[in-house]
Amino acid sequence: MGRIILDKVTKSFGEVEVIPPLDLEIDDGEFVVFVGPSGCGKSTLLRLIAGLEDVSGGHISIDGKDATEIPPAKRGLAMVFQSYALYPHMSVRKNIAFPLRMAGLDKAEQEKRVMQAAEVLNLTDYLDRRPGQLSGGQRQRVAIGRAIVREPAAFLFDEPLSNLDAALRVGMRLEISELHKRLATTMIYVTHDQVEAMTMADKIVVLQAGVIEQVGSPLELYQRPRNTFVAGFIGSPKMNLIGGAEAEKMGAATIGIRPEHIEISDTEGTWKGRVGVSEHLGSDTFFHVQTEASPEPITVRTTGEKALEYGQDVFLTPRPEHLHRFDAAGLRIE
Amino acid sequence: MATKASRAAARLMISPAVLLLLGWMIVPLALTLYFSFLRYNLITPGAHPFVGWENYYWFVTDPSFKVAMVNTLQLVGGVLLITVVGGVIFALLLDLPMFGQGIIRIMVIAPFFVMPTVSALVWKNMLMNPVNGIFGQIAKAFGFQPIDFMGQIPLLSIILIVSWQWLPFATLILFTAMQSLDREQLEAAEMDGARWPSRFIYIVLPHLSRAITVVILIQTIFLLSVFAEILVTTNGGPGTASTNLTYLIYVSSLLQFDVGMGSAGGVIAIILANIVAIFLMRMIGKNLDA
Fold first, then answer.
1. Total structural domains within chain B
2. pLDDT tens string A26-68
């Protein structure tokens, strides 16, 4: 079982406080994604949970036991590293069996568990190869295999897909989600890619500078971002954030509207603007429209069929029910 | 890039260097081979008749030849053992974050810059001398009989001196290898439940194996021809207790003035070095493939 609770956990490197006191609860079987821009402390947080870094203050408990002082190997967690960290001089079989060998399991049991893991991950044909002879995706699976065989209380993933090419990344994303459904084990996943976060998570934790900005399900975060940071970070293309006079009209310091919640018309609308670059994805088209409402161009999402000329005059109308309002401190106004 | 014309031009351009190097090697080698078949002693002037394999026969059947061979192997093996084990330990220690890292690293490398004769003399007179040496003084301070290093354990003393000179080399190579070890691998092993000794055996040592083979290969080539340290400390003695093959060749050709015999010894040394080189190349080749 893997219920992990962080209680006022802090981390400093020398004088620099990377993580100010932080509380977080992760339920058993949950797929939690830590997401945030680089350097926001998400990897550090994961390493604190893993035990690879010592906390500067606070407590970490795993399954009700205080794990703050327990060494990493005894916490019952398995980690998949960004570089995969496979042992290059060992075959795939030996790589996967390594944790079992260290635990002193007998050979037959080791072999049985390795075979099970290999079957789950489609690695049976590669067991006698070295990591150097495998492709990126296969190495990734070996790293996951090495984590699975330990039957851990929770899996920790540290940006596991960032070294893969785009097509493979989508495939592995599905495989990891599938694995989570099958094993129903707690997984904590660190990424800077909000698409990964949205597609995989049961619960997303958005971090900035070591501070949790918001915790919630992907749709909660998308529909009701708690502040401008989350609003701008979650969603692709990004939410349009407009300040100044337009926002004041609606009694806010900043208003936000997602690209798909703006009507575009040739004849009438709230904001007059001029079409800039259009990006055609086939299914959708994104228009970047320069308006007097904001200095930044506003992104509008329409169906793929819509075609507008560069430089054409258009009118934009935000749908009022989808407007997000934020106060001067950047917090959401209900 | 490599068209036929450019390859031909490249060959043409490096040929003077290659020819010069070849001449540099071939002429002395041919002369040594030639001398090794002559009765050529500097104290018996006159004709130098061709004697076939006679020089080789006398060199090999000389009782000091067998001693010299054993000593050579012991010297090479001993120094390799000390420098590789010591080098791994030093590499691990230097890899730890510590105060004054830069200075300590330079100090560890320093012995390599000292000339062999100088370091051997310093060891002989300052450290190992039974009367004035530091080791002797320490032994006396604790009430022990000082060891006469050069008299009682001449070969071991030379092994120690040469090891001191070569330890920096081994440390340097192994330390560089140590730094290229992926930290995430060690962390992964830690998560996998491997304690420190297991991490060392299963992760660090395999990672260092390539560097260790390089150290062994390069050092063996140089250690087969250790000479200066023996000349300035024990002169191969007492008796032949610290005579290695190189020193035996020196004794034949320059102390007994027997050019023919010395040349024969030289040819044997060349063959020996090549046999070792072939073995090492194969060993290294296997290791580098993986």
1. 1
2. 999 899 999 988 888 888 899 999 888 888 888 898 888 888 8
User: Which residue range is the domain that position B164 belongs to?
Assistant: 37-289
In this structure, which topology does domain A238-333 adopt according to CATH?
Answer: OB fold (Dihydrolipoamide Acetyltransferase, E2P) (2.40.50)
Residue B25 lies in a domain: no
- Other C-beta atoms closer than 10 Å to the C-beta of B11 total 10
Q: CB of B184 within 8 Å of any CB in chain A? A: yes
Does the beta-carbon distance from A98 to B192 stay under 8 Å?
A: yes
Which position has the token pair 């402390």?
Answer: A41
Q: Is 60 exceeded by the pLDDT of residue B290?
A: no
pTM, 2 dp: 0.79
Asked if A99 is an interface residue toward chain B (Cβ–Cβ < 8 A), one would say: yes
How far apart CA A104 and CA A333 sit, in angstroms, is: 57
Residue B273 sits in a domain whose CATH number is 1.10.3720.10
For the range A19-27, what are the long-range contacts, defined as Cβ-Cβ under 8 Å and sequence gap of 24 or more?
A19/A44, A19/A45, A19/A48, A19/A210, A20/A210, A20/A211, A21/A57, A21/A58, A22/A58, A22/A210, A22/A211, A22/A212, A24/A205, A24/A212, A24/A215, A26/A2, A26/A154, A26/A186, A26/A188, A26/A203, A27/A3, A27/A186
pLDDT at B230: 92
User: CATH top-level class for A4-231?
Assistant: alpha beta
Q: pLDDT of A283-294, one tens digit each?
A: 899 999 998 888
Distance set, CA A248 to CA A114, A168, A291, B135 (Å): 62, 46, 17, 87
- Tokens encoding B134: 């530091």
Q: Cβ separation of B185 and A150 shorter than 8 Å?
A: no
| Among A29-38, A305-314, B1-10, the least confident range | B1-10
Do residue A81 and residue B188 have CB atoms under 8 angstroms apart? yes
Residues of A in contact with B188 (CB under 8 A): 79, 81, 85, 87, 146
In chain A, where the domains are located = 4-231, 238-333
